[in-house]
Please model this.
Amino acid sequence: MNHLEEYYSRYDEDGRLLSRHGQVEYLTTMKYIKKCLEGIPDPDILEVGAGTGRYSVTLAKQGLRVTAVELIEHNLEILRSKLDGTEPVIAVQGNALDLSLFSDNSFNLTMLLGPMYHLYTKEEKLKALSEAVRVTKPGGFILAAYCMNEPTVIQYVFGLNHLRQVMDQNMLTDDWHCISEPKDLFDMVRTEEIAELDAAVPVRRIRLVAADGAANYMRECIDAMDDETFEKWMEYHFTICERQDLIGASHHTLDILQKEHNREF
Model:
């Protein structure tokens, strides 16, 4: 069992997204998924790195046709356990770096909502993004999620008092960029690195969104909110989540791309 399999065999991803603070990321992502699908009759959707199916299963239960690809067998078993057999979903084991199972120009929407977290070189990230673009129809959308560098430095390095540890293990560059290896599980990026990836594939960016904004800085506060207060928090979050001066401070970002240049929402 590798580091990633060991991590996901014991991590409750559904619990994270179902928590009140985790709902910020989930509701934001769902909002932009729906925007991408507006005006497309009977869309074909691919989720690469579908995890335990929080998005794929939800979309399939809404009657949308989904293909879910997941690397970790444990996650795939959980995803399949949520299905009753009536949903229009196909769930297969696969790798974001090789989508040769699918033909070019097959899907209206391709989602990479997890794989970029666990790819540690620019070459790997570009391969995954290129594969996602290849299987997307012209004019279709690609959603790619990333873990951001600065919140990790602020919360993990300083907030949780790991400065000495990361310095001793040479886990930071001189300009405070986190250095990750597979044993560290997650790779952190900055907005300029996302832009470099986008520039290397035939897409245009529609939006770069702060998927959870300040939610992870305020977990206890948000988890304690009543329904009315949380509704107002989401109203505020949606007002600012596209502000580019705040993007790099979000723990997770959502890069919304369009293959070629035919349609915009």
